[in-house]
């Protein structure tokens, strides 16, 4: 299993060979891009796009152009997420969660699933040479099954894909429902990536995932004083803290799961 540290600090790609997970927008807005020392994957930034606008503001063509520039300047990435449509209640219906305001798409879960599959097909048509991974979306096991079937009807053999993202599960990962979704999709023989997985989720279903990412280290650091000798207010943007957190996550997992968090 490949475990990616999620960060908005794009320059970290030149500082560490630990796998990183970064939003495409952080690369797209940069004048200069640094070559990567280690493996990395690219998030489309869909949660932020749909949270703020209730729709995608970048066209598939613009997104492909961004991905191609990243590939050419930073180096080949493991895979990139498509412009998928998350199915959480706040994304669909809108509202507030803490300091965040959600515009809401005001569409149905089946429509989000349909648009997710349609976008992947369009992106792959525009750029068959780029490593864009299909993503499964839904809210229930039946939703994810329907999403997988839509891919199959479109001629996409998910079992042959190097990575299949599992969206909208980060808030369910440690629950019985979340475990059922992961288990059902893994039973299809898919190499799953779990978006936003924390320790509880990894403990429960980490053995069913091919890869996962997490930004939990940043939230963790925000609630604690900085590391000794660090002059910033907290270590929420600190590579040293992130790497130490990753080591602690590995040590906290059961012994049989610790090899899952290797760099490779």
UniProtKB/TrEMBL annotation:
Domain of life: Bacteria
Stretches assigned to the DeoxyPurine in DNA protein A domain: 2-259
InterPro entries, per the entry: DpdA
A Pfam match: DpdA
Protein name: DeoxyPurine in DNA protein A domain-containing protein
Organism whose genome encodes this protein: Streptomyces caeruleatus
Biological classification of the source: Bacteria, Bacillati, Actinomycetota, Actinomycetes, Kitasatosporales
